[in-house]
Amino acid sequence: MTHITKGANTPVPAALLRVAVCRQSVPGAPTVDASALLLDAADKVRGDADLVFYNQPAHPSGAVRHAGTAEGGGQFTEWLEVDLPRVEPAVQRVLIAGSCDGGVFGQVPGLHVQALTADGAVVAHYAVNDARNETAFVLGEFYRRNGQWKFRAVGQGYASGLAGLATDFGIAVAEPVPPVTATAVAVPAPTPAPAPAPAPTIAASAPVPAAAHPAAPSSVTAPVAAPTDAVPHSFGPDFPPYTQRGQGNGVVSVDAPLPPGPVVVEVWHQGEGYFGMHTLTRRNKDDDLLFNSTLRDFRGRVLVQPPKDRPLRLRVEADNDWTVLVQPLSVLRRLGPGPLSGYGPEVVAYTGPMADLDVDFAGDEDGGGYFGLWSLEASQLHDLDDRDMLVNDTDRLRQTVPITDGPLLLLLEADGAWQLGARPLVVPDRAAPQAAGAYTGSGEKTLTLVNPTPGRPALLEYACPGSGGGLGHRLLLVDEYDDEEDLVQGHRHGEHGRTLLFTKGESQVRLRLADVAGWSLRLLPVEQAPLLTGPVEGRGSTVFRYEGPPALLGLCRTVSGDQMVTIRTVQADGRSKISADTVRRRPVTGPLWVTQAGHCYVQVWTTDETGWRIEPAALATAPVLDGAPVEGQGYGVVRHAGPETEVMIQHDALGGVTLPVLWELDERLEPVRRISTASGLQRLPSGYLQIRTSGRWSLEPRT
User: Fold this and answer.
1) CA angle 309, 315, 321 (to 5 degrees)
2) Fewer CB under 10 Å: which end of the chain, C or N?
3) Average pLDDT over residues 551-559
4) Position 213 pLDDT exceeds 80
């Protein structure tokens, strides 16, 4: 890896390079949008097309493109691809720039830029450590010198924002006005610090007109907005890319380990001629046809499901030099608020709401060729055949097709240039959720809920009044295989209440509402759960935060009735253990299990009309088993002060069928081992023990 400092330069290979603009993934930190500017000998852009960013992701020459975003390993990355051999002779420099949204570059943690070869080798690394109040930044540049390409760490910031940077390189800046022609290029403008101000319209001084779609004008005047996937969906785990090069016919055998799920197979074929590729069966015979093209300088991407019990093997038929890359789904380009263009087969990620998808296909050099488009929902990635066909046509076309809400993948087979544009539908009961986390409706429905604080749990406040019959309403978590797990059951948890959601830090979850009439949901930051510091009384289901040492947690009903009250301790990673439950007014006790940092959540489950009282208590209040017997009724916690010994467990179920279940607790009161589920003589360890039952019990040491 070549580390360079500000102002220094280093040679880079004249090849296709991937450029990563990286920052640490820290909640609340400003976002950074990466862009590239192609400059001539006068250090100016020649027109609109010389600016490449997420809303104009590809240069007409194919030399530069915005390749999307990825998050993993504690950092957020925007990817650009610069194919140096394809940079036109008139272009002398390719600038790598960034604009900052939600703050200034001095607040961006771990900002750096890297240039990598196709096989992942880092050829240049520049860490920015002197940013201050800038809202736009030239990070580095590729430039020609004596027939060789070099990369220089520039590190030049602009406190005047993207408008100041744009002016320096020949981009005309004007105050925003209503668009009247399709000749302006809008660049995502940063939110200035310290106070917001109208963002300027930035247009290249020598604009290049663009064709417009009749249903959705493809004017390059794009809305100044963050991409629809501001909370990126992870379609699969990351892994190091696998690369193999060759010439003519060949076989690719991926001997590197691949995680479960589909992968992206990307191919490059130089020059004219034929390129084809099949997967191979266990018997080394052709299986699925992946590519079949005679396009010049062919490039394409396709999804492949690797075998579970053997390496992925591919057969290549080619007339010239080729490169095959096996990559994670994080490399996919994302369809955002602006049009997305490409050439040849590709896979595109979409995480927005339901939309009408405008499709333009320009065809091959003769205006003909095949175009196919399919959608594949993220929940069906285990079965690549379970996809919906949207377009299946030949020759040039302009069509509009409906797509469902994301996350989903769009799979394209194309013999030429294409463009996609998504126009989200206005759905009243989804606009509010995206803005404020409030969802309302009636009848059964499946929703995708977005975590207001990704990486952390959140509160789900629910109300399902009037949902009667049977078990009452049900809120079910739906996984990627459409398997369901009960989250809330009306007959046990009430028509109104609070529960924890996103307990594994998910960015979003699917929730199905069943057996409901009218309903409303609201997502809240988990900090809005009250802090449990002393006795609390209430009714229905709710959540508390607890911060402190391990403790006992007392529980009792405060009203008569036969509805169960249950308390559970829940950790931030989703692990949950029962503390106590009761149907009587007699107090019971359970462990308040905390992490090493001294933290947990307390979930109270019961019906709306059931009143309860909970109270944390010091461990010293636990009865001590030390020679003399200890007895109680219902859930309890006992400290065995002596060494491991035999203890007689006696139990009276009081006419019920419950058994005395005895658990060993560790030093943080986590139940770690079930010792017994029956009366009689048992050998008990020293330390804290939990008894789970609704009947009477006694523990008597035997000497």
Assistant:
1) 135
2) C
3) 94
4) no
**pLDDT, tens only, 75-125:** 888 899 999 999 998 899 999 999 888 888 888 998 999 999 877 788 999
Cα dihedral 155→161→164→165 (10° resolution): 40
State how far the Cα of 529 lies from the Cα of 541, in Å rounded to an integer: 12
Q: Please answer whether residues 135 and 158 qualify as being in contact, where contact means their C-beta atoms are separated by less than 8 angstroms.
A: yes
Q: What would the pLDDT profile of 304-317 be if each residue is shown by its tens digit?
A: 999 988 999 999 99
**506: number of Cβ within 10 Å:** 20
Output the pLDDT for position 43. Answer: 85
**pLDDT classification of 20: cutoffs 50, 70, 90:** very high
Q: Which residues of 176-188 are buried (b: 16+ CB within 10 A; e: fewer)?
A: eeeeeeebbbbbb
Closest to 590 measured CA to CA, from 609, 559, 608, 569? 569
Classified as helix, coil or strand, 106 is helix
396: nearest Cα among 414, 373, 375? 414
Query: CA torsion sign, 392 to 396 to 398 to 403?
Result: positive
349, 375 Cβ separation under 8 angstroms:
no
Which pLDDT does position 372 carry in this prediction?
94
* Sheet containing 542-547, strands listed edge to edge, beginning at the edge strand earlier in sequence: 542-547, 599-605, 565-570, 576-582
In terms of Cα–Cα distance, which of 444, 436, 439, 443 is closest to 428?
439
Q: Angle at CA 297, nearest 5°, toward 291 and 299? A: 45
**Amino acid making up residue 631:** E
Residue 668, pLDDT > 80, answer yes
Distance of CA 441 to the CA centre of its chain: 26
Q: Residue 697: what pLDDT?
A: 94
Beta-strand pair 624-625/636-640? parallel
Q: Using CA atoms, how far apart are residues 136 and 208, in angstroms rounded to an integer?
A: 25
Q: Please list, in sequence order, all residues whose beta carbon lies within 8 angstroms of the beta carbon of residue 653, skipping any fewer than 6 positions away.
A: 659, 693, 694, 695
DSSP state letters, 277-325:
EEEE-TTS-EEEEEEEE--TTEEEEEEE---SSS-EEEEEEESSEEEEE
Q: What is the pTM of this model?
A: 0.43
Cα separation, 703 vs 696, in Å, equals: 23
- Beta strand spans in 339-466 (E): 340-343, 346-350, 355-363, 370-377, 388-394, 397-403, 408-414, 417-424, 438-442, 445-450, 458-463
The sheet with strand 333-334 has its strands ordered as: 333-334, 346-350, 408-414, 370-377, 388-394
131-166 b/e (C-beta count within 10 Å ≥ 16 → b): beebbbbbbbbbbbeeeebebbbbbbbbebbbbebb
Asked if residue 514 lies in contact with residue 469, where contact means CB atoms within 8 angstroms, the answer is: no
How many whole angstroms separate alpha carbon 373 and alpha carbon 254?
28
pLDDT in tens, 467-518: 655 567 899 999 888 889 999 998 889 999 999 999 887 888 999 999 888 8
Residue 431, φ and ψ in degrees, nearest 5: -70, -45
**Pairing mode of beta strands 64-72, 75-83:** antiparallel
pLDDT single digits (tens) 328-381? 988 888 888 778 888 899 999 998 888 999 999 988 767 778 999 999 998 888
Q: Which amino acid type is present at position 254? A: V
| Of 132, 135, 131, 261, the residue nearest 188 (C-alpha) | 135
Residues 6+ apart with CB under 8 A from 697: 631, 632, 633, 636, 649, 650, 651, 652, 660, 691
- Which tens digit of pLDDT belongs to each residue from 26-84? 888 888 989 999 998 888 888 877 888 877 788 888 899 888 887 776 788 889 999 99
Would you state the pLDDT for residue 467? 63
Which one is predicted more confidently, 216 or 492?
A: 492
**Number of helical H runs and strand E runs in the chain:** 3, 55
CA angle 390–394–397, rounded 5-degree value: 70
Q: Which residue has the tokens 């046509």?
A: 393
